[in-house]
User: Fold this.
Amino acid sequence: MNSEKIKRNEFLKSLGFKGTALFAVYCTGISCTTTDVAPISGGSLTINLADSANAALLKEGGYIINSAVVIANNGGKYVAATQVCSHENIRKVIFRSGEFYCTEHGARFSTTGTGLNKDASRGLKIYSVSQSGDVLTIS
Ligand code: FES
Assistant:
């Protein structure tokens, strides 16, 4: 009887461990694929340039972050990329000096997503931006 109880406990413990491990993988999958790396996957993000919250976009070199997307005015042309750096999946990407730049360890990406240094070797997810009047559509 006692040995049966022990076996059962060991069995449940082993199930629990496996459950925890699977959960971790599952969470990592959601975090990287759905929420972080492709936050507007399957849809689009609309930015109104007339909205004062987006005023930074009216200046060359200015940028905003909306829905984990970095949108920037690059010499009068709008560019957009994920805020999540491909180096360690951290939301630290900003726009600086005509490049996307991660403030965590210094990864630098071109506006087409090409990595410009070692920490940026995996590149950066870039979105397309179209403009109609004051409205930017990022997809
Ligand atoms: S997380 Fe961006 S450079 Fe390391």
